[in-house]
Amino acid sequence: MFDFKDRVAVITGGASGIGLGLATRLASEGMKIVIADIETSALEKASESLRASGAEVLGIQCDVSDKAQVEALAITAYEHFGNVHFLANNAGVVSRHKAWEGPEDWDWVLGIDLMGVIYGVQSFVPRMLASGEPGHILNTASTAGLLAFPGIASYNVAKRGVVALSETLHHEFTKSALSVSVLCPGIVDTNIGTSERNREGIDYKPEPDKFLPSDGKENLTPDEVADIVVDEVREGVFWILPHKHYGEQALEQATRRISGGTPVMPHIHR
Ligand SMILES: NC(=O)c1ccc[n+]([C@@H]2O[C@H](COP(=O)([O-])OP(=O)(O)OC[C@H]3O[C@@H](n4cnc5c(N)ncnc54)[C@H](O)[C@@H]3O)[C@@H](O)[C@H]2O)c1
């Protein structure tokens, strides 16, 4: 059972959406908060609003796809708060393209959504293990880590990688004071549909509906997801699936693997 109070959390992508919802909820649990984000203006705004609610907050500008910046994030977090007990590898982006298209999209998405998580693990886990104190890693994957949605190939691959990394960590944390969960949400009302706002070298035009078509029926708010995360991390849950029907679909797909079936198109809501 993970105890949050008076401990330190680092949340990447903490200036918006699920990361900000999580930072807000963890602050209300009595945690000291480091939010790291690439988007400076949103980072400043989020830090100020968390501070206004009484939280002890450090905002750090960081591009998680840059290994040196993630290492610098760890150094600064430990210098400032003396320890880190909870790391949310949450920053993420999506790009819409087919599997054979968009070499630059592949680099951009894998750099943030997969390598960003790996760099977080590499920079924080050795320090967390060395402290000997209880600690938790929360990796934000997606239902795309369980099911392959057409049109977002790089996202599916990155998120399945995050699921594999998280399962591996779970086994490797045996007999340590660390634990890990993987968060696989369906649709959440965030700014993910405009993730290219933070992408260098493109002529960005807002297309909020670019990510996945949704009729809104299964949408959760970031605060609802944060509540589920805190409750389930506290209980020691590894697979955090705020939308349970994706777990059922993943089970059906797994069953088809041994019965000779082909993959079935995943459903967003049912
Ligand atoms: N919204 C959904 O429906 C949904 C569903 C499943 C999984 N997710 C995952 O949730 C996570 C959070 O996304 P969100 O939906 O809250 O979107 P969001 O855009 O609201 O928040 C993502 C945050 O990550 C930051 N970010 C982007 N690139 C970065 C980088 N290189 N370095 C550091 N920070 C960076 C953004 O500035 C933003 O603050 C992502 O990993 C996403 O893939 C979202």
Give the SSE map.
Blueprint lengths: L7 E5 L4 H12 L3 E6 L2 H13 L4 E5 L5 H15 L4 E4 L13 H29 L3 E6 L12 H20 L5 E6 L38 H14 L3 E2 L3 H15 L12
Parallel strand pairs: 1-2, 1-4, 2-3, 4-5, 5-6, 6-7
Helix pairs in contact: 1-6, 3-4, 4-5
The site of nicotinamide-adenine-dinucleotide has 30 residues, from helix 1.
What does this structure look like?
The protein has a seven-stranded parallel sheet, with helices on both faces. The two termini are 33 Å apart. The chain has one domain: NAD(P)-binding Rossmann-like Domain (Rossmann fold), CATH 3.40.50. The protein contains seven helices and seven strands; from the N terminus they run E-H-E-H-E-H-E-H-E-H-E-H-E-H. The chain has helices spanning 17-28, 40-52, 67-81, 103-131, 153-172, 222-235, 244-258, and strands at 8-12, 32-37, 57-61, 86-89, 135-140, 178-183, 239-240. It has 270 residues and is α/β, with parallel strands linked by helices. Bound molecules: nicotinamide-adenine-dinucleotide. The site of nicotinamide-adenine-dinucleotide (NAD) has 30 residues, from helix 1. Nicotinamide-adenine-dinucleotide binds at residues 12-13, 15-19, 37-39, 42, 62-65, 90-93, 112, 140, 142, 185, 187-188, 190-192, 195, 198.
